[in-house]
Each structure stands twice: as structure tokens, then as C-alpha cells.
Amino acid sequence: MKVRVLQRGFNFSQDGPGNRLVYHLQGCTMRCPWCSNPESIAPAGCILALGEEADRLCPFGAVRGGMPDEAKCAACEKPCLSAHSRSLRMSCTEEDTDDILREVDRSKMLFFDGGGVTFTGGEATLQWDALVLLLSALHEKGVHTALETNGTHPRLAELFDRIDYLILDCKHWDDETHRRVTGRGNGQILRNLRAAAGARSQLLVRIPLIGGFNDSADDARMFAETLSCLRTEHSVEVLRYHEYGRDKWKQCGMEYTVRDAFVSDESYRQFCAVLRDSGLQLTHT
After folding, report:
1. Kind of pairing between the strands at 165-169 and 88-90
2. Which of 91, 104, 226, 269 lies at a CB distance of 3.0 to 4.6 Å from 45, suitable for a disulfide?
């Protein structure tokens, strides 16, 4: 089975416990304006241009807003990607799941301190069949598995017995605000959150703290109420806004629209204090 891989690499403790081989899969169900990997959003991938916009580099006018015209690109076999290989690249590669499993087998000696394999995105559950196959095979091999997800897939709970460590993003407590900013409501996310809290011992909930979006005192109180389903063995991590992916938006031919979203040290401390005072266990990876 084929799977579109955005990137891969080893990471220690940030995407699950120990030293982990992390696969970022292509495609996402949301369009968060602060996304640090905007090239991951389009399910089929996009063309990134380094230094210039891809629209101007394509001699056949086959790229608009970083997105390739599949018919035009297929007809010319994408010569731009070879002729301008230093300037243009596809965001993902299509790979065989068997090759990924063999790569994991070769990497097992590096899974120290409780490490293993993590799938993230984009949104990994968008490639559902390939993800199920990979998680099932790795679980049978005894490899520690982790999944980082935005929680939008309605069948997420079916994966619980194949995931050792679940990381679930919770971007906003309010459905309408969530939908207006990310393009998706949070109803399914909160249902999956409650299901995970009831069924799992290893669960990390991540809140991206974005100035002007979800960082007010009222937001903190409502997050605390929303996450009251978590048990003492579960953890919450609050991640402050950054602009690490800002340049990528231009490379993808898209506009970065976020303005003044940084969160001060004091606001961050106050936000975290509200969560702690409500009994939630905070962590930092």
C-alpha cells in the first residue's frame, strides 16, 4: 500500500517517550493560519519554491498558489522539478508501507529510553488505511507506537488498541471559533478526547496558545472545564505561538495572515496556573 510521507527523522521525547522515528504524513483536515508546516495541508502535496515563488518558476504556468496542475505536470513529466531541483521540490514522496516497515526494523537499535515510532502530520489519520496497516504491523512487532492527531477522525477510537501513546491537539473549547479559524468544528475532537480519557492511561493533550485566539483568562477557565474529563495520569502541554513556519507559507504560494499572536511570559504563566489550579497535570516536552 502507498503512503505519502512529508518528512521523517529522529526526535527525542517531543513526539512521545524516548528516542523516536517520526513520520510526518501528507495532508490535513484543518487549515490553521499559524501552521508551521503549511506544505502538509494539501492531501496530494504541493510544490515549494526556495527563494522565489513556484508560480514564477514554472515555465508552463502549471503552478498556481504553490499547487501543481496535475494534467499539465503529467504531460511534461514535471521537468521543472529536475531543471530547477535546487529551487523547487514536492512536499512529499509516495512510498510503500512495506518499505517503511523495513526501515523501522533497521532502526530498532535506536529506540532507546522507551522509544519507538510516531506518526504525525499534517494529519496522519487522513491516510487512514495506510495508517491502520502500519500501526497494526508495528504493534504486532512489539514496536512502541505513538500518534499525534488533531482528533477529527470519527473512527479514531478504533486505533486505541494499536497505539501505545496518544497525543491529541485541543486548539479551542468553542465550536464556532474553532470552525471559523481552522475550518473545522471541534465536536468530533471533543468526543474523541472524552473517549481517549476514558479508555487510555497514556494520553497527552496539547494546546497551541495563540494570542487573540485562545489565550484569555476566560479561555483558560473554559479549557480547564473542557479538559475536566482527564485523569491524574494524563498530561496537558501548553505550546506558545511561534513563527517558525512563516517563510514556508510564501514558499507554498500562500499568504501568512497571522498578526501579533505572540503570548507574553506573564500571560502564559497565568494561563497555565488556571489549568494547574483546576487539577490538570501540566508537562513540557
Report:
1. unpaired
2. 91
Phi-psi region of 27 (alpha: psi -120 to 50; beta: other; left: phi over 0): left
User: Does a structural domain hold residue 283?
Assistant: no
Dump pLDDT digits (tens) for 34-63: 999 999 999 999 888 765 555 566 666 776
**Domain range for 86:** 50-90
CA distances to 54, 77, 223, 235, 236 from 168, rounded to whole Å, are 33, 39, 14, 11, 10
Question: What is the rounded distance in angstroms from the CA atom of residue 231 to the CA atom of residue 220?
Answer: 18
SS3 130: helix
What is the number of structural domains in the chain? 2
For residue 107, give the H/E element and its range. Answer: helix 97-107
Q: What is the dihedral of CA 141, 233, 226, 151, to 10 degrees?
A: -10
Query: Are 198 and 58 in the same domain?
Result: no
Band of the pLDDT at 80, cuts 50, 70, 90?
Answer: low
Q: What is the pLDDT of residues 180-231, one digit of tens each?
A: 999 999 999 999 999 999 999 999 999 999 999 999 999 999 999 999 999 9
Three-class SS state of 4: strand
Give burial (CB, 10 Å; 0-12/13-18/19+) of 82: exposed
Tell me 230's DSSP state.
-
